[in-house]
Fold this protein.
Amino acid sequence: MRSLLALVLSSLVASAAVPAQATAAPRGRMELDRVAAVVGDEIILYSELQRSAARHPLMQEGMASLPAGASRTMVEQKTREVTGKVLDELIDLALMRAEAEKFDIAIGEDEVDNAVADIAKQYQLSVDELRKQVVASAEYGNWAEYKNEVRDQLLQYRLPQYLATWSVSEAQVREHYRKMTKDESAKVEVRQLVFNPPTQESGDRDRVFARAQVAARELREGKSMDDVAEGLGQESPTRAIGRGDVAPAIEDALFEAKDKQIVGPLASGQGYVVFVVLAHIDSAALDYEKAKDRIRQQLEAEAFIKAQNELRAQLRAKAHIDIRI
C-alpha cells in the first residue's frame, strides 16, 4: 500500500513543484478584490485564481500548444479555457477543505515539511535551494503560499482515504494480467475430440461418456489421433489454448499435463472432450508472480483517482456554488 501512496502523492504534488521553464500566459495587471466564486462560506478571489492559473501545468501546456506567432486573441482564448479548468479545481479544493474540517481531518506541519523535502529531492535540490527558486519565480506570493499549496494537495489525497471506498481484488489483478498478456501468454497446443449427447438425459450422457472413454483408452494405447478421429467421423485440427480460453477445470488439467499426454474425458458444456497435449508454448510475458505487484499498484492508483472524482462530484452535488466570472 505504501508504494501506491507514494505513486499517487507524486502525481498530486507535481503541480506544486518547481515551475517549468515554458512559455507562460501573459499576466498583465492583477485584479485584487474581485470575487471569482463563492463556495459555501468560502470566497475565491480573482487574484487567487489568476495566480493559480498562471503557474498551473495546464497553462504551460496550453501556451506551448499554440502555434508560433499566435495572435493575442488565440492566447486570450487559451487563457480563458485554462482559467475555467483551474477555477473548477479551486472550487473542488474549497469543498474538500470544508469536508475535511467537518471530519477533523488535517495535514500536520511535519507532513508538509516531509512532502517539501521529497519535492526538493526529486529535483536534486536542498529545501533551501527550492525555497529560493520558488520565491525567485514570482509565481507565489511567498514561501508560505507555496507550502500551503502543498498542504492542499496532500489534503486532496488524504480526504478520499477517509471518506471514499476503493479497493482492488485478487480477481481484478488476475483478469488485468490475462487481458494484458492474452496474445503473448503461455499456451498449450492440443488436438481434441468432442462428444455431445443428443439430449441431456442420463442415458444419453452415459453412452456418450462411454464412447469418450473408449477413444481416450485407444489414444493411450498408441492409436493415432487421425485414426481415432476418422473412426468417430470427426476432424481434430491443432489449436492453441491460453489461460481463460476454456473452463477453469479444463484449463488446469491441460496446463498441468505433460507433452504427449492424453487428457480426459472431461465434462465440457453439453458433453465431454478428450485432448492430446502436443506441446507447451512458453509465455513471452512477465510471469504473473513477478507482474502482480506492479499491476495492483496501477489498478489501485486508478481506483483511487476514480474514488476521488466520485467524492468531488458528491460534494458538488450538495454544495452551494456561485460562480461570478
Notes: Residues 186-281 form a domain with the Chitinase A; domain 3 fold (CATH 3.10.50.40). DSSP finds twelve helices and seven strands in the chain.
